Amino acid sequence: MSTKNQRLDFLAAISGVMIALQARANGELSHLIGNGVEAALVSFGSGLIIISIIALFTPSIKEGARNLRGAVARKELPKWTLFAGALGGSFVAVQTHIVPLIGVAIYSVASIAGQTAASLIVDRIGLTGGGKKHITPRRIAAAFFTVFAVFISVYDRIDARNLSLIAVVMGCVAGAIVGVQRAMNGQINEHSHQSFTTSLLNFITGTTFLVILILVGVALGKNELSPLPAGPWWIYTGGVIGVIYIAFTSTIVQHLGVLTFTLFSVGGQLAASLVIDLVSPTDGVSVSAYLVTGLAMTYIGVIAGGVSSSRVQKPKRR
């Protein structure tokens, strides 16, 4: 393997580490504020500010926006796909609520299981824009395997008071939301030809969605805005990490391919989530042999499903 490929593999793994760090930062911010939706807005809003500044000095992002307007005008791209960012906002809102309850590691296992399962539906209905795809028995088995890994991860804590099974289920739902969002973003990218344009659109719609959600909550008396805590500083890095992650993925995926990137990224995320829960766990979170086993099973399921998918997508020789 060349030095360049090794470096790209390492960067793909680092991108997975970023996902785990973002979950920890957003979760802690939510815990200190006491309002998951407000924490999600802070994360999304800060990301929007950063990527908006980048857009001002990047002509290609503006060109991507023009490409999108043209695609929508020609009805090549359905208007509803442009609201993929609202799903991203929902995902972060769920994330900020549940990470303080179950920890980063169990959250990672649950969300990856949700993504794996959702990918079956997304591919089957052709949401990615490339037409409907045949789902192999191996991919179905891999999806069930990752879902089973969630059960193994929390097996020793099912009766524990400090673990909300509803939160675990919501972790799976959050992962499924991401799976659908990525498919919609795939369609947007196909027409924008610029991943940062897609990301800017996501941050705009996601932030708008969260603002509306908070305003509705305040109007109904179910939400109260809280003053932002003074620190620690790293609780405000969620938005920055999100923008850096986008820069990583937009560059690395082109060189490594989706499968290789996914395997290294998920590996980095699972390993980092375990270290985070060992070194800096949220209150009441502990690492057990069941959790470590669940993490390993999740990665095996991702490998099995990914290899099967890559085989299906290879063109047949004539």
Please tell me about this protein's structure.
The chain contains 10 helices and no strands. By secondary structure, the protein is mainly alpha-helical. α8 runs antiparallel to α9. It is globular and about 55 Å long.
Which SSEs are present, and which pair or pack?
Elements (H helix, E strand, L loop, with lengths): L2 H31 L2 H21 L2 H15 L10 H42 L11 H17 L11 H28 L2 H25 L18 H19 L1 H22 L9 H25 L5
Helix pairs in contact: 1-2, 1-4, 1-8, 1-9, 2-4, 2-7, 2-8, 3-7, 4-5, 4-6, 4-7, 4-9, 4-10, 5-10, 8-9, 9-10
Brief synopsis:
This protein is mainly α and 318 residues long.
Mean pLDDT: 85
- Tell me the Rg in angstroms: 19 Å
Q: Can you summarize the main beta sheet?
A: none
**Approximately how much helix is present in the residues?**
over 70%
Class by SSE composition? mainly alpha
**How large is the count of helical segments?**
10
Cα end-to-end separation:
31 Å
Number of strands: 0
Order of helices and strands: HHHHHHHHHH
Low-confidence parts lasting 5 or more residues at pLDDT below 50? 311-318
Shape: globular
- Share of β-strand residues: under 5%
Keywords:
about 325 residues, mainly alpha, about 75% helix, disordered C terminus
